[in-house]
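G., the chain you wanted modeled:
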Amino acid sequence: MNPDVQNRGGSRMRLRGLLRKEFLQIIRDPSSIAIALAMPVILLLLFGYGVSLDAKHVPLALVVEQPSAEAASFTAAFNASEYFNPQAYQDMRSAELALMAGRVDGIVRLRGNFVSRLVRGPDAPIQVVVSGMNANNARLIEGYVSGVWRSWLTQQAGLAGRPLAVPVSVEQRVWFNSAVRSKDFLVPGLIAVIMTLIGAMLTALVMAREWERGTMEALMVTPVSMREILIGKLVPYFALGMGGMALSVIMALWLFGVPLHGSLLLLFLCAALFMLAALGMGLLVSVVARSQFVASLVALVTTFLPAFLLSGFIFDVGSMPHVVQAITYLIAARYFVSILQTLFLAGNVWVIIIPNALALCAMAAVFLLVARRRSHKRLQ
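Predicted structure as tokens:
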């Protein structure tokens, strides 16, 4: 028999044996299945239901210095809004004390000459005070109060049979997330963080576990090559990671109602590219860490935290300092988060998807190539 054919046949048999070993090890190891399948469920439930950037049912103090029909009509508009939980206060001093004590997040004050100023023009004396401890919440409250005020003025003008006199008429149009739900923005980005954990951390821990248990030394003395060992590690955990991806997408669509405007096939193709990059990062961690404790710390610092903080998952990359923005280009999750949010909320926007997908291809190739070059079939 031709030696080359014999070598290829032996390589295929060894690779099949390694793949079978890894799949059996995954089945027998509850921790791997928990990280790949249980952790996405827990994280999605925590972030989907527990984390919200929306401001709803905000406790708001209402101070009406001189009651009137107009003032009652205006304050009733706050009662009808889902964004506010209004509370009436007799005077400004008691409202300020409630704001300082944290019982309310803002104050709307209607002065005593509210009605007389309202008759003369639309510039009725309304004072709005908001707590600036949470800057994002303060801006939302200010915008919501302005919206209630404008809606009430429009309603009053309609009842009087005259148009509302404003210098500029603004008609708002919200694209890509018309419901303005933070959940639709957070859940797709969370999928990238979940896949980073599955790909990078799980691979690093599994390789470290092999060293701790001594099974890696046993592999080293067999005829298998380092390339076959790496492929035997990559394929099963790639399949496990894509299973976690599928579970996350199902929960996003059916449990949280996040719309998917793009192609499902394209979504999984891009997820496969990111999964390869995450696996490459995990293999690189395993090169320097041969204990599970060290591997978990290194993977946490080098993969999970950057994916969580610097990917645009929660914090807008454009608002970061320029030095930090430059660092984000080294984070694979940044490109995948952009793809996820585009496919879920906007659709197949190729000017965003293609450059980010190419970046993922390049990063996956670099990580896997470096991991292969740094992996040697020796014990030290």
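The first strand starts at residue 58 and ends at 64.

Shout if anything looks off.
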